[in-house]
Structure formats: structure tokens, C-alpha cells
Specification:
By secondary structure, the chain is α+β, with helices and mostly antiparallel strands. It has helices at residues 24-32, 34-40, 121-144; strands spanning 12-20, 43-44, 53-57, 63-72, 76-83, 92-103, 106-116. It has 3 helices and 7 strands, in the order E-H-H-E-E-E-E-E-E-H. Helix 1 (24-32) crosses helix 3 and helix 2 packs across helix 3 (121-144).
Length: 146
């Protein structure tokens, strides 16, 4: 086996990065307030508390099981993003981490969703596309909030 081939335990991560012309505090509100999360991501019962279990409910009918893993206000937010499915290609156990870094013009947001198995190419591709859309919506939500 050469060094480039993946072993069965290796996972892939989707990374999406975006510069926002807003302070981290404003972006943080959109990442942690349920009514704002619903506007750019999905319906939810999120609470910014480590250990809080919550669901994200997609328009497509799916329900994601999540648990808050880490919170560092205005800097880092991490939670599980799990989807139970009979088909292993779509059954997902992953972790989403948002990292906010202040810049001269606003805030750099890095989103990483890790935990895709090599055989989950469709789910991985869907997440890559989906996060670009989510972050574009996030920018619109932040732009119109006070």
C-alpha cells in the first residue's frame, strides 16, 4: 500500500472559508442565536452551552443530531453533526467547527466539517456545495441584523 492510499479509518474534511466585513461579535450572534441560525442554516433548538444536545431540521425532511462540544465566545464554536441513515453512504458522524479570526476589515470565518468516510463521496460533495450556500446566506443574515 503506498502512502497516498487512505486506510479505512481515515476521514475527509470539508473546509469553507469566507471573509466577512463585520466584527466577530456580530457574526457570533448569527452562529449562536436560534432564530438567526434558522435563517441561514436550519430550524433548530440550539443553546450556546457545552453538552447541550439539539437538532437541526432540514427543509429536505432530514434531522441532524448535534451536541455542543466547545464554545469560546467570538472565537470558536464546535458541535457534532450526525445523521442516522440506513445507507452507510449517507449515515454521517461528523464535527463542525467554526473559527472566527478578526482581520483589519472584519472577520475571517473558517468552517470545517470533519468525519466523512472515503466511501461517502456523495455526502462529502453535497457538504462542500452546501456550506458555500450556507455561508453566503449567513453573510446576508449578518448584513441585515443590528
Amino acid at each position: 500500500m503506498n502512502s497516498r492510499s487512505m486506510n479505512a479509518n481515515e476521514t475527509l474534511a470539508v473546509v469553507a472559508e469566507r471573509e466577512f466585513p463585520f466584527p466577530a461579535e456580530k457574526l457570533w450572534r448569527a452562529l449562536t442565536q436560534p432564530h438567526l441560525i434558522e435563517e441561514w442554516l436550519m430550524k433548530n433548538d440550539f443553546k450556546a452551552a457545552v453538552g447541550h444536545r439539539f437538532n437541526l431540521r432540514g427543509d429536505w425532511g432530514g434531522v441532524l443530531d448535534c451536541e455542543v462540544l466547545a464554545i469560546e465566545p467570538h472565537r470558536t464554536l464546535s458541535y457534532t453533526w450526525n445523521f442516522a441513515h440506513d445507507d452507510p453512504a449517507f449515515a454521517l458522524q461528523s464535527v463542525v467547527t467554526f473559527t472566527l479570526t478578526p482581520t483589519g476589515r472584519g472577520t475571517h470565518l473558517r468552517m470545517e466539517q470533519s468525519g466523512f468516510r472515503p466511501e461517502q463521496k456523495q455526502a462529502y460533495g453535497g457538504a462542500r456545495h452546501g456550506w458555500q450556500q450556507f455561508l453566503a446566506k449567513l453573510e446576508q443574515v449578518v448584513a441585515r441584523t443590528e
